[in-house]
Every structure is written in C-alpha cells, then in structure tokens.
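Following up on my earlier thread - several people asked me to post the actual chain instead of describing it. Fair enough. Here it is, all 667 residues.
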Amino acid sequence: MERHTTSPVHADCEYAHMAWISRGRIDDHILFNREEIITQNRYIIHNIIDAIVYLIRGNIAFWGSNSHDGNFSRLITLISKNVPVLRAYLEKNSSLQGKSGNKILRPQINFISYGHVKKLAKIIKIKILNEIIKQIISNCAFSLILDGTYDISKKECVALIIRYIQEYPHPHPVERIINIFTTSDTTGENIKNNVLTKLKALHLPLEYLIGQSMDGASNMRGVNKEVQALIFKEAPKAIYVWCHAHRLNLIVIRICGYGNEIKKTMGILDELYNFMNGVKRQGVFTKFQMQKTKKSLKRIKNTTRNWASSFKALQNFLDVYEYIIASLTELSNSDDAITFSISEGLLSRIKRYDFILGLFILRIILKCTHETCIEMQAIGNDLAMMIKLIQHTKNKFQRLRANGDNILTSLHTDVKSFMDKNNVTTDIYNIKSIFKLDQKEFDNYIEQQKEKYKNENFYPVINMIIEQLNERFNYESLNFLNQISIFTPAGLADNENIEISQISEIVCLYNFDPQKIIDEFSNFRPLYLDSLSIIYSKDLINIRKNDTLYDESENIINDSKMTETKRWLKYSFILPYRLLIKSSSFPYLKTLYKYFITLPTTSCSAERAMSKVKIVKTRIRNKISDSFLENLLLISSEIDIYDTFKTEDIITDFALTSKRLSNLLIG
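Reply from S.P.:
Thanks for posting it. Predicted structure:
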C-alpha cells in the first residue's frame, strides 16, 4: 500500500481528483508541478557545481576507493544540511539504494554519480576553452609555450600553454593552459604531432602561431628533428625563443660549481642538510631554532626547475647559523660514534673564515641573479623588457668587478662582525699566537689571504658570469632580436631614420611591406613621445604583482617593487601598443607590436602547470585519467574565466547532453 501511494501513477490520480473538485484543467496542474520539479533539479545541480569547483580550486581529491566515498560525497552531504531540496534528494536516492528480490533498485537518474560529476567538469572546461579560443581568434595571433616532466606514473607529462593579448579591460598579455597530455614517447616528432593535433582540434589556425618558447632540453631546442624545428616547418612565423629564466639558471648552476672554494662551500652546505635531515638531529635543531625564528634549512638544488632556490637556501643558512652552531655543539656530545664524528667535522668547517667569506661572496653574486630571475618570471614581460633587464644584470656584475677591492674589504669587516656576533673564533685568528707573528706580520698575512681569495675565486667567478651572460644572451648574433630593439621605446625616442635593411628579417618573417612599416613608424614617433604621460599603465603594475612567482618581500636594486615595475614598463612594447589601438592610422605597425607582445620570453607558465600536476596527480591518485586530469588542471588554472560564467548556462549545457537530463532540467 505504501509503495502504491508514493508512486507517480498515484500522484497523477491525486492531481486529477483535485482538478475535478476545483473544476480546473488537469494539464495545468501537471505543468505547474513539472516546472517546480525542474526548478528544484536545477537548484540541486547548482549546488553540485559549487561543490565540484570548490574541490578543484583546492586541488582536492574527489573520490576515495570508490565513487560513493571520498571528499565529494562528504561535501555534498555537508551542503545538504542547509539545503532542504538537496537533502530530500539525497534521502530519496538513499531509500532507493537496495534490492527487491533479485532486482537492484536505483534512482531514475543520479545527479551525483561518478559519470555526471565528470561530465559537469568537462562542460566547465569546454566553456573555458571556448572563451580562450574566442579571444585568440579575435586577436589573430598567439604563441606556444611547452614544457614537460615525468609525473608520478612515470610518463612524460607535457603542458601546452597559449600566450596572447587579452583586450579587456585594457590590452595586456596573458598565458593560458589549454591542454595536458602524457606520453611514453618523448621524441620531437611525437610531441609535435600531439601539439598540432590539439591545436587542430581547438580550431586554432597555424597561420596565427607567431612564436614558441621551451627550455633547452635536447628534444625541444634542436634545429633538425626537435620540437621547435618541426613546429617551425608547419608554422613559418613561429620563431623560437629559448626560455630566458632557464638560461639564467644554467648560469646559476655554473656559479654553484665554479672553482674549488665555491664547490667546497656548496659541498659543506649539502652535507650539513643531509646530516640534519635525520629525525633526532632535526629535533635538536628545531629546539634551538623555534626560540626566535621558524626558518629552516633548505637544500641548494642543482637544477633549473627550482627558480631562485640557491639564493633563498643560502640566505636561510645565514639566518639560522647560530642555531646550527648550537645544534652541532650539542650533537658533538652524542654517544653515537657517527653522529659525534660528523658533527665535530661539520662544526669545525662551518666556523672557518674562508667558508664564511665564501658564503658572503656567494650571497652578493646570487642576490643579483635572484633579483633578475624573479623579475624575469612575470607574465607581463616582453622581449624589449628582457633585453633591457639582461643588460642591467650585466652592468651589475661589471660594477661588482670594478669595485672588487672595496667589496672584499667591506666583506672582510662584515665577516668579522658576523663571527663576533655568533661567538665564533676561527683558526685564522689563532695564527698570530701559533706562529708568534707581530701585528704587522699578521696584517700582511690577512692581506695575502684576501688577495688570494680575490684573484683565485672572486674575480674568476665574476668574469665567468659576465662571459656566460654575453654568450647565452647574445642578441646581436640573432638578427631578428637585434632588429626588434629598433621598435622599443628607446628606439621610438631616437631620431635616427631606419633603413629597410635594418628591419629586413622582421618584415620577411611576417610578410609586411617594409616601406609602410618605416613610414608608419616615422609618423608614430612624435605622437608616442607627446602622449607617453597619458597612456594608462596602472593595471600592468597590478598584473605583474599578481603573477604566481611575484615575491612582494624581494626588493630589486634597493627600490620598492612598484617603482621598479614602473621602471621596466618604460621599456615595454605594451605602452606603444596601447596608444596604437586608439588610432586607425597605423594598421601595420599595430599588428607588428601585437606580435612583439605576443612573443613569449620564458616557459615559466608551463613550469607552474607542471608543479600543479604534481599537486593533483599524487601517489594515491596516480591512476587518474588524462582527460579528467586535464579538466581539473584547466579549471583550476583558469578559474578567473570560470568566475565570469553564469551557473544557469552551465546547467543548461549539462541538460543538453542527454534527453533524460533535458526532460529533468529544461522540460
């Protein structure tokens, strides 16, 4: 009896009976009830979408050992406590989960099933992709950024990033992830095929592809059968830009392994990190360290993937130096022979004058590269800014070399103060009594040691850095990049006339009439110089401050971040472009500047995507499918686009995927 009274047939009869009593039309009652059910169903889906997006924002796993367990089902249950419609729906579903004889009872349709959750995530991803593609097509230009790494499932995971100009609210470059794929074949041909297949599936014309950026891996950078060369054959405008940040970090790696003294210093730091990584030893260090600071030891990682880690690890070591001394002193009293021996050896070595001097010299050098590395990683950078930034970095090291004597004299004083502050006495100050030297002889000995360190370590490493900067960032040897400098703001301020030969490679690559470019450039010069003060740029400062790796705590060249950002923006292509789009008199020049801004400078965005892959695809989630992984990463990375969508539109798209869903959500 109870089963009959709750059946749809009985409900329809009840409506018919009530309609007959009230003399109303039966179909009107049924229609009213149907609209109410649709409204309730859409509200349920709305809450489910909120739960999906919440988990994706936090990179949280959806399910446990099965689709009925895990964070998603718990979150839906939690939401339902304050949403009566959702609670009633879950209770109804739960009541139908059972058996009647040999027949399994299931709800007519389960909105929170594994398949429907994945379908909703896919719909959101598709809507985000469509918005990105719409912006690219309207812009008629984009660049490609690629990077890959081995994921937890031992496959090569490749991130595909697109760089283009987003026109609203004010034109600025953006970098968006459009695809993640895994492969066991890391050859250039296979990666190229995967990339071009994805671009074709997204209906992105190769004639719009005007640049590509990757790291210096052998399967990416080569000029024959590697990825960039193969893509360039298919898209002749897609000039390759070797990631500037990778190039700089290759120099940092050379610094950390250059010369015996520096290698010795880095070896001691690595040995100390490994020794203190034990549970009991770390406990001793934490006991001292937690008294004043929460900073801990960090390993100086010898890899280009850990941006600016060398400087931060070195600075951390100096900040916790006194706690390391205290920890090693306590550990040297251990009954364990190995702990006693290693701690004694490390304690004597990190108290040495030459070790501490090496740390201070490395800090000065790595601070310069660290500042450049941080600034390089902003998405708002373009090649004009990079050329100026690299030149500025070269100038800093040239000043270090020119002032070497004064710097080392100052460092000697700083090292002595540092040692006195930490109550450290070293062998160099015992020499006076050991060899019975008078004050003059002792002073001469100190000067000899300083001169030796200067000539054998300081100057050689500075010379190597300048040589490496000239070699790895030799824009003069690349005609295209050399010709770009003509169109920088500095070039606009120059009154010299330009010849066709000076821009021949640019106009040839992009199929422009050189004379039209020259004429428009000559006419645009005075307009730009007169209008520079009124070009809107405040949003560009905010964009650069909101970049993922923008470090608010790091000052560059002793200026505030905002002042420094304004300084670099003066050399950017974006300011002339913002003036050009307001005028219809410079169509060719406007397109040329659009291409310059669209060209990538680093592959840092792809590196960030790889970092997110490691957060999402963990050891316990290593069987996640490529399609679902792509959905999660794309939504998580481009959540700002999702925030512009109306949830009702997502529900409608979901309803149109099947007739049954359409009946329940649209009618």
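The longest strand covers residues 172-183. That should answer part of your original question.
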